[in-house]
Protein backbone atom coordinates (compact mmCIF):
# COMPACT_ATOMS: atom_id res chain seq x y z
CA UNK A 1 0.00 0.00 0.00
CA UNK A 2 1.13 3.55 -0.73
CA UNK A 3 0.82 4.74 2.82
CA UNK A 4 3.16 7.13 4.61
CA UNK A 5 3.69 7.82 8.27
CA UNK A 6 1.83 10.71 9.79
CA UNK A 7 3.77 13.92 10.18
CA UNK A 8 4.97 14.13 13.82
CA UNK A 9 5.84 17.80 13.42
CA UNK A 10 2.24 18.84 12.73
CA UNK A 11 0.84 21.27 15.27
CA UNK A 12 -2.68 21.66 16.59
CA UNK A 13 -2.76 25.25 15.34
CA UNK A 14 -2.80 24.18 11.71
CA UNK A 15 -5.57 22.42 9.82
CA UNK A 16 -4.71 18.80 9.07
CA UNK A 17 -4.80 17.75 5.40
CA UNK A 18 -4.57 14.27 3.88
CA UNK A 19 -3.73 13.72 0.18
CA UNK A 20 -5.03 10.76 -1.85
CA UNK A 21 -3.74 10.36 -5.42
CA UNK A 22 -2.30 7.38 -7.27
CA UNK A 23 0.39 9.46 -8.99
CA UNK A 24 3.43 9.90 -6.67
CA UNK A 25 4.58 13.10 -8.38
CA UNK A 26 1.14 14.68 -7.96
CA UNK A 27 1.06 13.71 -4.30
CA UNK A 28 4.51 15.09 -3.62
CA UNK A 29 3.68 18.32 -5.41
CA UNK A 30 0.53 18.76 -3.33
CA UNK A 31 2.35 17.87 -0.10
CA UNK A 32 5.00 20.50 -0.85
CA UNK A 33 2.41 23.12 -1.80
CA UNK A 34 0.25 22.54 1.28
CA UNK A 35 3.26 22.32 3.58
CA UNK A 36 4.28 25.87 2.65
CA UNK A 37 1.03 27.30 4.02
CA UNK A 38 1.14 28.77 7.56
CA UNK A 39 -2.36 27.52 8.41
CA UNK A 40 -2.16 24.01 6.88
CA UNK A 41 -0.13 20.86 7.44
CA UNK A 42 -0.06 17.49 5.70
CA UNK A 43 -0.91 14.67 8.08
CA UNK A 44 -0.42 11.89 5.55
CA UNK A 45 -0.75 10.72 1.97
CA UNK A 46 -1.82 7.56 0.16
CA UNK A 47 -2.04 6.20 -3.37
CA UNK A 48 -5.21 4.16 -2.93
CA UNK A 49 -8.49 4.18 -1.08
CA UNK A 50 -7.75 1.31 1.32
CA UNK A 51 -4.51 2.85 2.60
CA UNK A 52 -6.11 6.26 2.95
CA UNK A 53 -9.11 5.02 4.92
CA UNK A 54 -6.92 2.87 7.16
CA UNK A 55 -4.93 5.91 8.30
CA UNK A 56 -7.82 8.33 8.60
CA UNK A 57 -9.93 5.89 10.59
CA UNK A 58 -7.16 5.99 13.20
CA UNK A 59 -6.07 9.61 12.95
CA UNK A 60 -8.74 12.27 12.20
CA UNK A 61 -7.97 15.03 9.71
CA UNK A 62 -9.77 18.23 8.77
CA UNK A 63 -9.56 18.07 4.97
CA UNK A 64 -8.95 15.32 2.41
CA UNK A 65 -7.83 16.08 -1.15
CA UNK A 66 -8.97 13.13 -3.30
CA UNK A 67 -8.58 12.10 -6.91
CA UNK A 68 -11.56 10.42 -8.61
CA UNK A 69 -9.57 7.64 -10.30
CA UNK A 70 -7.87 5.38 -7.76
CA UNK A 71 -6.82 1.73 -7.97
CA UNK A 72 -9.43 -0.56 -6.44
CA UNK A 73 -12.13 1.51 -4.78
CA UNK A 74 -12.79 4.75 -6.67
CA UNK A 75 -12.53 8.22 -5.21
CA UNK A 76 -16.32 8.49 -5.22
CA UNK A 77 -16.61 5.36 -3.08
CA UNK A 78 -13.92 6.64 -0.71
CA UNK A 79 -15.82 9.90 -0.30
CA UNK A 80 -18.89 7.93 0.78
CA UNK A 81 -16.88 5.83 3.24
CA UNK A 82 -15.32 8.90 4.80
CA UNK A 83 -18.80 10.13 5.71
CA UNK A 84 -18.95 7.28 8.25
CA UNK A 85 -16.05 8.68 10.27
CA UNK A 86 -16.67 10.81 13.31
CA UNK A 87 -15.85 13.56 12.80
CA UNK A 88 -16.09 13.27 9.02
CA UNK A 89 -13.42 15.30 7.19
CA UNK A 90 -14.27 17.91 4.60
CA UNK A 91 -13.43 16.70 1.12
CA UNK A 92 -11.99 18.41 -1.93
CA UNK A 93 -11.84 16.50 -5.22
CA UNK A 94 -8.87 17.25 -7.46
CA UNK A 95 -9.18 15.44 -10.80
CA UNK A 96 -8.48 15.53 -14.51
CA UNK A 97 -12.05 14.39 -15.15
CA UNK A 98 -14.38 17.04 -16.56
CA UNK A 99 -16.42 18.62 -13.78
CA UNK A 100 -19.48 18.50 -16.02
CA UNK A 101 -19.56 14.72 -15.62
CA UNK A 102 -18.14 14.10 -12.16
CA UNK A 103 -18.51 17.17 -9.94
CA UNK A 104 -22.20 16.72 -9.18
CA UNK A 105 -21.64 13.05 -8.35
CA UNK A 106 -18.78 13.99 -6.03
CA UNK A 107 -20.92 16.61 -4.27
CA UNK A 108 -23.78 14.12 -3.86
CA UNK A 109 -21.32 11.62 -2.36
CA UNK A 110 -20.26 14.16 0.26
CA UNK A 111 -17.49 16.31 -1.23
CA UNK A 112 -17.55 20.05 -0.62
CA UNK A 113 -15.41 21.14 -3.54
CA UNK A 114 -14.21 20.15 -7.00
CA UNK A 115 -11.09 21.45 -8.76
CA UNK A 116 -9.80 20.21 -12.11
CA UNK A 117 -6.07 19.53 -12.36
CA UNK A 118 -5.82 21.91 -15.30
CA UNK A 119 -6.38 24.78 -12.86
CA UNK A 120 -3.47 26.67 -11.30
CA UNK A 121 -2.11 25.24 -8.07
CA UNK A 122 -3.16 28.25 -6.01
CA UNK A 123 -6.79 27.25 -6.69
CA UNK A 124 -6.23 24.14 -4.54
CA UNK A 125 -5.24 26.24 -1.52
CA UNK A 126 -8.12 28.65 -2.10
CA UNK A 127 -10.52 25.71 -2.32
CA UNK A 128 -9.19 24.08 0.87
CA UNK A 129 -9.64 27.29 2.85
CA UNK A 130 -13.07 27.78 1.31
CA UNK A 131 -14.41 24.40 2.40
CA UNK A 132 -12.82 24.81 5.84
CA UNK A 133 -15.23 27.73 6.23
CA UNK A 134 -18.11 25.37 5.50
CA UNK A 135 -18.66 26.66 1.95
CA UNK A 136 -18.91 24.74 -1.31
CA UNK A 137 -16.15 25.38 -3.83
CA UNK A 138 -16.81 24.86 -7.55
CA UNK A 139 -16.03 26.84 -10.69
CA UNK A 140 -18.26 29.77 -11.63
CA UNK A 141 -19.49 27.84 -14.67
CA UNK A 142 -20.50 24.82 -12.62
CA UNK A 143 -22.12 26.98 -9.95
CA UNK A 144 -24.25 28.62 -12.62
CA UNK A 145 -25.19 25.23 -14.08
CA UNK A 146 -26.18 23.84 -10.67
CA UNK A 147 -28.23 26.96 -10.01
CA UNK A 148 -30.08 26.52 -13.31
CA UNK A 149 -30.65 22.86 -12.55
CA UNK A 150 -31.90 23.09 -8.98
CA UNK A 151 -33.27 26.61 -8.53
CA UNK A 152 -36.61 27.51 -10.03
CA UNK A 153 -39.89 25.81 -10.72
CA UNK A 154 -38.45 22.93 -12.72
CA UNK A 155 -35.09 21.35 -13.47
CA UNK A 156 -33.86 20.68 -17.01
CA UNK A 157 -33.31 17.15 -18.26
CA UNK A 158 -29.97 15.47 -17.63
CA UNK A 159 -27.36 16.69 -20.16
CA UNK A 160 -26.38 13.12 -21.07
CA UNK A 161 -27.57 9.57 -20.65
CA UNK A 162 -24.45 8.80 -18.61
CA UNK A 163 -25.96 10.92 -15.84
CA UNK A 164 -28.40 8.06 -15.34
CA UNK A 165 -25.62 5.56 -14.59
CA UNK A 166 -24.74 4.71 -11.00
CA UNK A 167 -21.29 5.70 -9.71
CA UNK A 168 -20.05 2.11 -10.07
CA UNK A 169 -21.54 1.77 -13.55
CA UNK A 170 -19.83 4.99 -14.60
CA UNK A 171 -16.51 3.64 -13.33
CA UNK A 172 -16.98 0.44 -15.36
CA UNK A 173 -17.97 2.54 -18.38
CA UNK A 174 -14.84 4.68 -17.98
CA UNK A 175 -12.57 1.65 -17.80
CA UNK A 176 -14.21 0.17 -20.89
CA UNK A 177 -13.47 3.45 -22.61
CA UNK A 178 -9.80 3.05 -21.68
CA UNK A 179 -9.78 -0.28 -23.49
CA UNK A 180 -9.75 -2.51 -20.42
CA UNK A 181 -11.18 -6.01 -20.73
CA UNK A 182 -13.74 -7.42 -18.32
CA UNK A 183 -11.21 -9.42 -16.31
CA UNK A 184 -8.93 -6.42 -15.84
CA UNK A 185 -11.86 -4.23 -14.79
CA UNK A 186 -12.82 -6.84 -12.20
CA UNK A 187 -9.27 -6.86 -10.85
CA UNK A 188 -8.99 -3.07 -10.71
CA UNK A 189 -12.36 -2.61 -9.00
CA UNK A 190 -11.89 -5.70 -6.82
CA UNK A 191 -15.19 -7.23 -7.87
CA UNK A 192 -16.07 -10.45 -9.69
CA UNK A 193 -16.16 -10.83 -13.46
CA UNK A 194 -19.85 -11.70 -13.19
CA UNK A 195 -20.48 -8.42 -11.37
CA UNK A 196 -18.70 -6.50 -14.12
CA UNK A 197 -20.81 -8.32 -16.72
CA UNK A 198 -23.97 -7.43 -14.79
CA UNK A 199 -22.92 -3.78 -14.73
CA UNK A 200 -22.25 -3.91 -18.48
CA UNK A 201 -25.71 -5.37 -19.09
CA UNK A 202 -27.30 -2.63 -17.02
CA UNK A 203 -25.32 0.07 -18.82
CA UNK A 204 -26.35 -1.30 -22.22
CA UNK A 205 -30.00 -1.20 -21.19
CA UNK A 206 -29.74 2.33 -19.82
CA UNK A 207 -27.93 3.68 -22.88
CA UNK A 208 -30.04 1.72 -25.36
CA UNK A 209 -27.10 -0.24 -26.80
CA UNK A 210 -27.58 -3.57 -28.55
CA UNK A 211 -24.38 -5.44 -27.72
CA UNK A 212 -20.93 -5.31 -26.11
CA UNK A 213 -19.34 -3.95 -29.29
CA UNK A 214 -21.67 -0.93 -29.26
CA UNK A 215 -21.05 -0.48 -25.53
CA UNK A 216 -17.27 -0.38 -25.95
CA UNK A 217 -17.52 1.95 -28.95
CA UNK A 218 -19.77 4.32 -26.99
CA UNK A 219 -17.46 4.19 -23.97
CA UNK A 220 -14.42 5.08 -26.10
CA UNK A 221 -16.33 7.89 -27.80
CA UNK A 222 -17.44 9.24 -24.41
CA UNK A 223 -13.91 9.15 -23.01
CA UNK A 224 -12.62 11.06 -26.04
CA UNK A 225 -15.40 13.64 -25.79
CA UNK A 226 -14.74 14.31 -22.11
CA UNK A 227 -10.97 14.47 -22.49
CA UNK A 228 -10.61 11.78 -19.80
CA UNK A 229 -8.61 9.30 -21.81
CA UNK A 230 -5.41 10.08 -19.93
CA UNK A 231 -6.90 9.03 -16.59
CA UNK A 232 -7.37 11.07 -13.40
Q: Describe it for me?
A:
It is a single chain. This protein is an alpha/beta fold. The chain folds into two domains: 15-149, Response regulator (Rossmann fold); 161-226, Winged helix-like DNA-binding domain superfamily/Winged helix DNA-binding domain (Arc Repressor Mutant, subunit A). Helix content is 47%, strand content 12%. A five-stranded parallel β-sheet has the order 2-1-3-4-5, sandwiched between helices. Strand 3, helix 3 and strand 4 (90-95) form a beta-alpha-beta unit. Helix 7 crosses helix 9 (193-207) and helix 7 crosses helix 10. The model is unreliable at 1-11 and 153-158 (pLDDT under 50).
What's the short version?
This protein is of the alpha/beta class. It has helices spanning 24-35, 49-56, 75-82, 99-109, 122-132, 140-150, 167-177, 182-189, 193-207, 212-226, and strands spanning 15-20, 40-46, 63-66, 90-95, 113-116.
State the helical fraction: 40-55%
Trace the largest sheet across and list its strands.
2-1-3-4-5
Oligomer class: single chain
Let me know the number of strands: 5
Number of domains: 2
Q: Structural class, from helix and strand content?
A: alpha/beta
Helical element count? 10
Name the CATH architecture of the largest domain.
Answer: 3-Layer(aba) Sandwich
Largest sheet composition: 5 strands, parallel
Question: Terminal Cα separation, in Å?
Answer: 19 Å
- CATH homologous superfamily descriptor of the largest domain: Response regulator
Query: Runs with pLDDT <50, length 5+?
Result: 1-11, 153-158
Give the amount of beta strand, in percent.
Answer: 5-15%
Note the overall shape: globular
Amino acid sequence: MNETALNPAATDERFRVFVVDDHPLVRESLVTLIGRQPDLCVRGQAGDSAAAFAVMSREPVDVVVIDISLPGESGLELIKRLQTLSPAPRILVLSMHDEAFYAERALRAGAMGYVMKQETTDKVIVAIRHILQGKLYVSNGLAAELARKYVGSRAPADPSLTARLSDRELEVFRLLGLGHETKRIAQELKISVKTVQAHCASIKETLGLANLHELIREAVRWMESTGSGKGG
